[in-house]
Amino acid sequence: MTTEARRARYRAMAEIEIYTTPWCPYCERAKALLSRKGVSFTEHDAPHGSQERRDAIQRSGGRTTVPQIFINGQSVGGSDDLAALDRAGKLDAMLAG
Question: How far is Cα 82 from Cα 80, in angstroms, rounded to an integer?
């Protein structure tokens, strides 16, 4: 499936949020995977001590690392968790809603 076909398939189906910090290789990896899938996402800059970071920690059940990724409000974890979902063939279904 082409990127454009994926983009059309996922458009407005899943709400994706990702809490990140600058210079974070795991954040870049997660954003690259989502971009390859052709989905749009809302990125929240969440440096240490910020309200955004506190929000990410609360929403994720106490996880303090970045990125923290949410699909349709559900915490899916970080970059490694997102990649594992993709390898298991479960990410596309989540993105499609």
Answer: 5
Domain that holds residue 34: 3-95
- 46 is written with which tokens? 């969440």
Joined tokens for residue 25: 């290789």
How many domains does one find in the chain?
1
Distances in Å between the Cα of 39 and the Cα atoms of 61, 64, 71, 91 are 25, 25, 11, 12
What is the model's pTM?
0.87
**Comparing 80 with 2, which gets the higher pLDDT?**
80
Indicate the length of the chain as a whole number. 97
Q: Which helix (H) or strand (E) is 67 found in, with range?
A: none
C-alpha pair distances (Å), 30 with each of 1, 17, 49: 20, 11, 22
Backbone Cα Rg of the chain: 13
